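Hey, I was hoping to borrow your eyes for a little while. For a while now I've been wondering how a particular protein folds. The fold is given in discrete form, as structure tokens running alongside the sequence. Could you read through the record and tell me how the tokens relate to the sequence? Take your time with it, there's no hurry, and the full record follows here:
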Amino acid sequence: MRFVTLLIAVLLLTGNAFAAGQLRIGTLAGVEPDALRFTHEVVWKGTLAEGAALMIEEVQAECWCQPCAAPFPADGGVCECPRCGAISRELRQGRELQLASLELL
């Protein structure tokens, strides 16, 4: 799990434990936020992250419609504009898996 590896590397480099971490996860990132919420305590046990809070911001997928010059939600990865029916090739957001913040102790 790259996120856990990144956190452990940061903690080892700084020598600090942390109190909380915030992630931004897109709906098309291939990561299940509920699974992370459920398992983070087990994964972090015995590390400098043990006991830290995990906050997750879910980012809804959004495409850009060129003919309408407007964004639209890409629910379930469907990139068909609900206004004009054009198929978008431009996914503006929804694949994020970002460490948004880290609160060190």
Notes: The chain has two helices and six strands.
